[in-house]
């Protein structure tokens, strides 16, 4: 039987507390016994022993602060200011942002208030006392120069996660041009999507495009990764909120619905755990909430894993070596390339040395599903939101699609390379609505970052500090993306041409870290090209078949009232962008669209 997470946490911390209290008590006893100390009342050693741990903490905390100050001074650097708010104020601002706020809002407010680099700590506003001693201080480093240091130039000073190199090396060879340019899977899933969309349009209803796209990306990703689709498109799509009674029981009870529900809930819980840091077991004290969700997902993945492993064993027994071309799923690739070394024993038997743990294989696949599904779904959902907001852009995109691909055929890799406006459009969506709006890295040794502003000192970051950076805020800054043009804010204007005209040379080329939706440096997204292909494929198909995208404002969740006082972009939002690990639209994106008649093209 497994212990609940809360007890594991307490038992894990208990020895340190017990050791300090017990040794203090014994020490006092010996000192009294040897008459080094006068005899104390019997309760006194007990009280001192109980207080031993907090006292050690405070002493450690002050010692660390003092040591950091000295180290900063020795480097000619400065320590960033702490966000000067009470712990309750910090918690309530974060909770309010999760409930009603705009992604990246808290960070923006804090960095504006205190200068660009700030520190915050849930346990104290003034950094006088800290319950944990490592990775508890978070620092916001929102300057492109700092992001460059964190992701690239000082990459080795930040934690990479256990076995990161191994995982990357194992997965990377799979993303060859040939594999990521095979659009057969998309063709099948597009046909299903098209049928669902057409039926719903004929019934006179709007469509939750976010839901439809997420079914497309999930089915494509599971087929690409595991060799079998979850089949979420075959469940159908939901009716708008006002017609919820039209959803059939078979829609709710479809096996894929269970998988999707477990997957989505798991992502939200994982984001909550990340926010809580190492203290998450205190919130899930008696019950680990993610494990049962993982079991639901395992019901789908386990049989596929077993099949792949059995096939590999059979191939080995038959002396068949896998051909690269045959490995069209990532699972087959991982099984073939991580099964350890094959040796022939003296008795002629084949033996595997260091076979890879199937659990690790499964984790790898689920990680890739997280990395690959919701990100592309986000890109496509916000792309369609922008089509609804900018009909002129829809026309230009269709023009390019018809010029390069034609009105009916699916796109090919070579054609995609020529679709410059489509790529610029996708980049502009990624700029204003980056699927991973914020990210973080933790220092493994002290780091000195360049000054945030001219004339300021470099910034000293102690060891074990979690550095947050909000890509979404960097992507929207006027000082980085251009000043006002015809009285509107250029950085907050949706304008794909900025990735095509002289603004590329002016802003992006000299300062590439102002745009990093896929991260940068040695840990840059492995699926970047895959994602561009998938999104381009979907856009081509969508614009070959549909036009006149308009938002169904009776079904979309309206943005909170307070957003009206935000910047120009936030104030003009018609839907509610929010985020767990990745961005999405709360309540979905309900859109009406018309079938495209050939002569309209
Ligand atoms: C628009 C779509 C996508 C965006 C914006 C995106 C963004 C990112 C970002 C920001 C990271 C860095 C995360 C971190 O290290 O903290 C990342 C990593 C990664 N992504 Fe993507 N991604 C997208 C699509 C995909 C797809 C489709 C796949 C695979 C099928 C994929 C596979 C990966 C992998 C394997 C990593 C880990 C790389 C490493 O740690 O070395 N991504 N992605």
Automatic annotation (TrEMBL):
- Tell me the domain of life: Eukaryota
Name the cofactor(s): heme
Q: What are the UniProt keywords, alphabetically?
A: Heme, Iron, Membrane, Metal-binding, Monooxygenase, Oxidoreductase, Transmembrane, Transmembrane helix
User: What positions does the entry give for heme binding?
Assistant: 525
Task: List where the protein spans the membrane.
Answer: 7-31, 43-60
GO MF annotations in UniProt = heme binding; iron ion binding; monooxygenase activity; oxidoreductase activity, acting on paired donors, with incorporation or reduction of molecular oxygen
Q: Which Pfam families match?
A: p450
Query: SUPFAM superfamilies recorded for this chain?
Result: Cytochrome P450 (SSF48264)
The similarity annotation says: Belongs to the cytochrome P450 family.
Q: What is this protein called?
A: Cytochrome P450
Origin species: Psilocybe cyanescens
